Amino acid sequence: MGKTGIVAFAFGSPETIRSNQRIAHIASQNAIKLGAPVYTQLDIYIHLEIRTEYIAEEVGNPPPTLRIAKGAVRWAKQRGITELLVIAAKPHLWRCVRDLIRSARETQTQIMIRVCEEIEQYPKNSWFCPESTQTRTQSEKNWQKREWFLKLLPFFIYKRIAN
Length: 163
Known about the structure:
CATH class: Alpha Beta
Helix content: 40-55%
Oligomer: single chain
Structural class: alpha/beta
């Protein structure tokens, strides 16, 4: 096994909502266990003793999934990381993994993408938080309204609007 890094994708905002606290906890535990650095965004609070890099973003304007994926692949490549452990909410996971794989392929970066097993401990509907400031992550109904479109959208178009 190569050098592992962790990429943690927020699911809603702010950092205090259940989904983001869960993602932060899983990422922190795995970082400690593996001695791995973390690449994430502002709505995921990682313990200070863990090497963490945050993607540049404006408060209240989180970056799109694809931009995080591209940043994570660049970050991994610069550090000689050969495996990325993905930590994301179950409903968001398919897109996080797809975007990481596409980003690695586009930059011709040899990197293994692995999903964190702990994600499976939580039912899909337990990730939605009514108190999220992002309407799309407040309920499964809101999420699906947006996701069905993104699943059907050809990647070359998605890349233009999600970057």
